[in-house]
Specification:
51% helix; alpha/beta; eight-stranded mixed sheet; globular; two-stranded antiparallel ribbon
């Protein structure tokens, strides 16, 4: 603590601020939303902000960023366009980007895509909450992260590209970019809106002049969508500066949509948190106003050095049911009202288990219309909104309750996980249990969503570069998954090797054992390694299901 301010005095300031904020939030009758900016990613992940990323990659291209910024008359989006064009040749020709080109060259169709892919890859390899980042290594920040992860909020909006919000709120459904939000049936509860794109989808990044112009041209549509949130919830902005030009543009559009007569009502719901670098400063909560939409917008400003008390307030808010349950119920009603099927004689019963660890035997049931005995039997296996972890743990045999194969194949993967085109997700176990895999290994996909066929048939191949390395250094020397995992190779190469091993040299049990051992460990938690690990789970799933189908046929004979 800086001299002149003792710990007890600072704690008193924080306690007073916490009581004041708690009372203010309680007056709204709705849980808050978090609107998270780059300051939070810098604080907990040590990631650079937008300008910092541009400076870093300009330097990689041998360019002076200050020159590009001066040529752009200080306009960062214009400077970003200039840097992207300068980086274009390096990305397409430099050997250090060979792996990125192998994976992404098919989608890069202009002179800005290379920079977006490189930035996305950098973020994906540096955004995990693991040792080496401030939010893990610094005990004070680690305490903040733990409290933030338990914050009771109805949703998150962010302009950051990284996965921090996904790690902190894994049960929230993410929507990436304006298109996914505008064209979706978002329920505005237990959801994350990545309005400037995400590193998992490189071309979604809002980065250059053209990106910001397209974003601004459609901003009034986004504002109309977000107005639903601002009209019903307190919104806490954190990680931004009050002078942020693009944040203010969003607020301008929302203020314009509300109209001057209701700005006061809107302003009561806006909380703007500003970090004070002075550790000895008092925590303050005060009423102020900013110029928006041609009028003054009153807001609540929070000035603080530590966020621990702030996240503590949010972690102690009360909700009668988990947010994921409320979202699922709301979506069910929405679907029933907006997509009625005249041919349906009944609406399938849905059940979502409360996800508290000590509430395994309790269920919230929501049903419309008649239902059958089979519906009742399936209640315990339909579960909450399906997550990747549920499927992976079930396939590996480490989940307490099994998943119903018919429900998972018919709607769970499509509606719950919404697997992308480049996803790895095991589905063969459920195809086998549903009787859809023939003894010869052929699969019947009739009546199933297209995503199931796509996941089942996605090639499980390593990159050409790593295959060549495997053939040169590993093949014949290491032949089992255990030997691979116990070797001194890097984690990503071990995971590549698992799909290159000759299956005749080891059993499915051998592969299962190392996958269970690795599951949930820091070694496979980074986004890149996690994708490779999920590919290995799919390999195990396919091999076990196909072996079981063939063995079943042999038994019958």
């Amino acid at each position: 603590m800086t001299p002149g301010r003792d710990t007890g005095e600072q704690s008193s300031f924080d306690d007073d601020a916490a009581a004041q904020l708690r009372a203010s939030l309680a007056s709204h009758g709705a849980l808050p939303y978090l609107f998270i900016g780059s300051g939070i990613s810098r604080r907990y992940l040590g990631l650079p902000d937008w300008e910092g990323l541009l400076r870093q990659f300009a330097a990689e291209a041998g360019e002076n960023f200050n020159y590009h910024l001066a040529t752009a008359n200080g306009d960062l989006p214009t400077a970003a366009t200039s840097v992207a064009q300068a980086f274009h040749q390096r990305w397409w020709n430099d050997q250090s980007y060979a792996q990125q080109r192998e994976q992404h060259s098919a989608i890069v169709r202009d002179d800005e895509g290379g920079l977006k892919v490189a930035i996305a890859e950098y973020i994906r390899t540096h955004d995990a909450l693991t040792a080496g980042v401030p939010g893990v290594d610094d005990p004070d920040l680690a305490a903040e992260v733990a409290l933030l992860g338990s914050a009771v909020v109805d949703g998150v909006i962010t302009t950051n590209y990284d996965s921090l919000t996904d790690q902190l709120f894994p049960a929230f459904q993410p929507y990436v970019g304006q298109d996914e939000l505008l064209m979706s049936d978002a329920q505005f509860i237990a959801e994350t809106y990545k309005i400037h794109g995400a590193a998992t989808q490189p071309l979604s990044l809002i980065l250059t002049k053209g990106d910001y112009e397209r974003f601004s041209n459609r901003n009034h549509y986004l504002a109309a969508k977000l107005l639903t949130i601002f009209a019903e919830h307190p919104v806490i902005f954190v990680g931004y500066s009050l002078s942020d030009e693009y944040l203010n543009e969003i607020l301008d559009n929302i203020a314009t949509a509300v109209g001057p007569d209701r700005l006061g009502e809107l302003g009561k719901r806006i909380y703007f948190v500003e970090w004070n670098p002075d550790a000895s400063s008092a925590t303050v909560i005060e009423q102020t106003s900013i110029q928006r939409g041609g009028s003054r917008l009153p807001i609540t400003r929070v000035g603080t050095h530590s966020f621990e008390w702030l996240w503590g307030v949010l972690s102690h808010l009360e909700r009668p049911f988990p947010a994921a349950i409320l979202r699922e119920l709301r979506k069910h009603v929405f679907d029933l009202v907006t997509h009625p099927d005249p041919s349906q004689t009944r609406e399938v019963v849905r059940a979502i288990p409360i996800d508290a660890e000590d509430a395994d035997e309790y269920r919230v049931v929501f049903g419309v219309g008649a239902f059958s005995e089979k519906d009742l039997q399936n209640l315990s296996t339909i579960g909450r909104t399906l997550r990747r972890d549920d499927v992976e743990q079930d396939v590996l045999g480490i989940r307490k309750h099994g998943l119903d194969p018919d429900n998972l194949l018919a709607s769970g993967v499509r509606d719950g996980i919404r697997a992308a085109h480049n996803s790895y997700l095991p589905v063969h176990k459920y195809l086998l249990e549903a009787g859809r895999i023939a003894p010869d290994g052929s699969i019947h996909f009739d009546g199933l969503p297209d995503v199931i066929k796509r996941l089942a048939e996605r090639p499980l191949t390593a990159s050409a570069q790593n295959e060549a390395r495997f053939n040169r250094d590993v093949k014949g020397a290491l032949t089992t998954p255990r030997q691979i995992v116990d070797s001194e190779y890097t984690t990503y190469f071990k995971l590549e090797c698992l799909v290159l091993l000759d299956p005749a040299d080891y059993s499915t049990t051998d592969l299962h054992d190392v996958l269970v051992e690795l599951y949930g460990t820091p070694d496979v938690s980074s986004p890149y390694n996690l994708a490779l690990f999920r590919r290995a789970i799919c390999l195990y799933d396919r091999r076990k299901a196909l072996e079981a189908a063939a063995a079943g046929a042999a038994t019958q004979e």
